[in-house]
Amino acid sequence: MTNRIVLFVAGAICLLGGLIAVFNPLAASFTAEQIAGWLFLFAGVVQAFAAFREGWSLRALLTGLLGAFGILVGLSLVARPLEGIIALTWLVAIFFLVSGVVKVLLSWPLRSTQFFWLLLGSGALSAILGVMILAGLPASAGIVLGTMLAIDLISSGVALIALGIATGRST
């Protein structure tokens, strides 16, 4: 199978997943939350195993503690998905708010360049999205993660298909 076909197939799968998520953001939110939970759990188990195999040292202890924390977070997300969606939505909202403020601050030294308004606008948009999500919690938690997943899958699908087209033209 050529790279072009692989890119088209991956793009089509992403687009299909994104469209499904657009029409059912609550299910997509639960899916994203459960995937995050299982990834934390798996990563925590691997870290704890690595720490156990290393023997007794400060590094092994810290790795083991980090692994145990990952296991606890993973179990919490897997066992309590609704609370997990709310917690992850809080984190996303805070991330948007903080990244927005940071981008706005980073834009000021660029006032005399063509990039000032782009970075300032991006920062303002991120901060506004963060505030909007926070203002809508906990009710917004059911759709925020799923909607963001849908947007990411659709944009990734379009990008992969475009890359497949570009790959086909260059060979």
UniProtKB/TrEMBL annotation:
The keyword Endoplasmic reticulum does not apply. Keywords: Membrane, Transmembrane, Transmembrane helix. This is HdeD family acid-resistance protein. One of its GO terms (cellular component) is plasma membrane. It holds the Pfam family DUF308. The chain crosses the membrane at residues 5-23, 35-53, 60-79, 85-106, 115-137, 143-166. InterPro entries: Acid_resist_chaperone_HdeD (IPR052712), DUF308_memb (IPR005325). It comes from Tabrizicola piscis. The keyword Transmembrane helix applies. It comes from the Bacteria.
